[in-house]
Give the backbone structure.
Amino acid sequence: MLTAEKFDSWRVVPRILLILYGIMIYQVSEWFMALPDPTTQQAAFVSTVVGAASAWFGLYVNSGKKE
């Protein structure tokens, strides 16, 4: 029987969000590298998206059960 505690212990939702964010970073990076002449605004956008990955990873790592 799948209980809420067991489902939560697998950390499914944080893992799914982390995977989706990784896919988004990949797609944004591909888009940016395909631009013929990127502007500073586009570079700042990519820098923000990729830089926020460290925050997402930190939230994932710290979201586990506290003992």
Q: What stands out?
A: The chain is about 75% helix and 0% strand. The mean pLDDT is 88. Residues 12-34 form the longest helix (23 residues).
